[in-house]
Design a protein that fits this description.
Strand order of the largest sheet: 6-5-7-8-9-10
Radius of gyration: 28 Å
Helix content: 40-55%
Number of strands: 15
Oligomer: single chain
Structural class: alpha/beta
Number of helices: 19
Largest sheet: 6 strands, parallel
């Protein structure tokens, strides 16, 4: 990232312009942004001001170029070129080609000098650009990992990784899970389902990916589960498969078919299934009930894995004074989890006070315009280690969304003694008539339906928690068995 600036469009929405270039050959980081550009606006609404003929022609030409570029990138020559460029011989080969181009140019301009001993000089100079051949020792750009295996220049393990590896090698667990710590729901699920978890940031570069692959290979664990499948994990999986063919690699998928409309989710889901068909991935677990059976018809080895929370409440929690206090947990930037119906439902609950999170400009405008009684509002999430206490302080938590597989937040809320309403899109409580009737909102896009069910849940708050207290142990037992079935042959 060379430079960025944020702007405001014609409806007050935020958007950004970014320069992403390692070399920045056109000096865009200096020339593209005028001084004080961060305060500038200027996003034209094309519905009010149509594109000119010249702009339409430019748009058409861009579309044609984009199509041509996609065709080039799909060609065999391009793919081979990319593999060579990003391989170990890529940099010296590029240097040799540049030198060859300069040499040819020089020969054309100095034909007489070519025959006067210049060829040996050119050959010697070309040879000097090539890397030395490594013998019985590591070449200069290699380091040795904690146990002596060679890695990249950034593959030296950090202190906590050395400690983690030593503990793993001593205990020899049956399975290690890998997940992205930025995905809070996935991380919460993964840490519950598996005892040993390796957190891999989604910002890990190629050298980091090599280091993580080495780390997992040296752990010599028979099963590795990649939970959520962040993009950076694809290379780790491929490297690990080559380095440790005896390790069974599995993927735990936390999405459903509705996610396939979104580019990142579709690309990762497609990659996961392709790795499974190619024999790189041994099994794919699904937290969405029914997906494993469907995907089996497409030749994918899958299993159903049930999310759960180990903790069982002793009694209903003691909420904040006043209220009732209602917390809405959702994503205002994700259409499957919009918070607006839940926030509007608070208007139906007498004396209710809303606690809102991830409040952006649109959410704030919505709350102000409809005069929703607000107790607190932040533009961030509550830290994961503070969540249990925060959830318990509410009279009721709301997580009523249009798409869920097996949401962790309702389970986390109930585990500390606070009811949580959710939508009808998961398997949760489909085997318990009272909890299903009390907590599942049949119309998640209806503020009225959410409000009416919230009133009933508040009236039966203690009864709901008591019913969950009796229900949770048996459910957790079945959930743990689903994990065992997943990781077993």
């Amino acid at each position: 990232l060379r430079r960025y600036a944020f702007f405001t469009d014609y409806v007050g929405g935020l958007f950004g312009t970014f320069v992403l270039s390692r070399v920045d050959p056109q000096s865009l980081s200096r020339s593209l942004f005028p001084k004080g550009s961060a305060e500038m606006g200027g996003w034209r609404d094309h519905r009010e001001s149509p594109m000119s003929g010249r702009e339409q022609e430019l748009s058409r030409r861009v579309a044609v170029l984009e199509q041509e570029l996609r065709g080039i990138q799909a060609s065999l020559v391009w793919r081979m070129r990319e593999k060579v460029v990003h391989s170990r011989i890529g940099p010296p080969l590029a240097s040799a080609l540049i030198l060859g181009k300069k040499s040819i140019s020089w020969l054309v301009q100095n034909q007489q000098g070519f025959w006067k001993g210049k060829v040996p000089w050119l050959l010697r100079r070309s040879a000097s650009q090539l890397p030395p051949v490594a013998g019985g020792t590591l070449s200069a750009n290699k380091t040795v990992s904690a146990s002596g295996r060679p890695g990249s220049s950034k593959a030296q393990y950090e202190a906590q990784e050395v400690k983690w590896l030593a503990e793993i090698c001593a205990r020899k667990p049956r399975v290690i899970a890998v997940c992205n710590p930025r995905w809070m729901g996935v991380t919460s699920s993964t840490k519950t389902l598996f005892e040993d978890v390796l957190l891999v940031e989604d910002t890990a570069d190629e050298a980091d990916q090599v280091r993580y692959a080495n780390l997992l290979a040296e752990a010599e664990c028979p099963r590795i589960v990649f939970s959520g499948l962040a993009p950076v994990c694809l290379q780790i999986i491929r490297r690990l498969h080559k380095m440790s063919s005896g390790t069974k690699i599995a993927i735990l998928w936390h999405g459903n078919f509705l996610h396939c409309a979104e580019n990142l989710d579709w690309n990762m889901f497609h990659a996961a299934c392709e790795l499974s068909r190619n024999g790189v991935v041994w099994k794919i677990g699904f937290v969405k009930k029914g997906m494993a059976e469907v995907i089996a018809r497409a030749g994918i080895n899958g299993a159903f894995v049930m999310n759960y929370v180990e903790r069982v409440p002793e009694r209903a929690s003691t909420p904040l004074e006043g209220g009732p206090h209602i917390a809405v947990w959702s994503y205002p930037f994700m259409w499957r989890k919009y918070p607006y119906a839940m926030m509007a439902s608070v208007l139906m609950i007498p004396h209710a006070k809303l606690h809102a999170h991830m409040v952006n400009a649109r959410v704030k405008a919505f709350l102000d315009f409809f005069r929703v009684p607000l107790s607190s509002a932040t533009n961030s999430w509550v830290p994961q280690d503070e969540m249990p206490e925060y959830l318990a302080q509410m009279h009721l938590n709301l997580y009523v969304t249009l798409s869920e597989c097996a949401p962790m937040l309702p389970l986390e809320s109930l585990s500390v003694g606070c009811p949580c309403l959710l939508g009808p899109t998961s398997h949760l409580f489909d085997d318990h008539e009272y909890l299903h009737k009390s907590l599942i909102v049949q119309y998640p896009d209806s503020a009225r339906a959410i409000g009416l069910q919230a009133i009933k849940a508040l009236e039966q708050r203690e009864e709901i928690v008591e019913a969950y207290k009796k229900y949770a142990p048996e459910y957790n037992k079945r959930a743990r068995k689903s994990v065992e079935d997943f990781i077993e042959d």
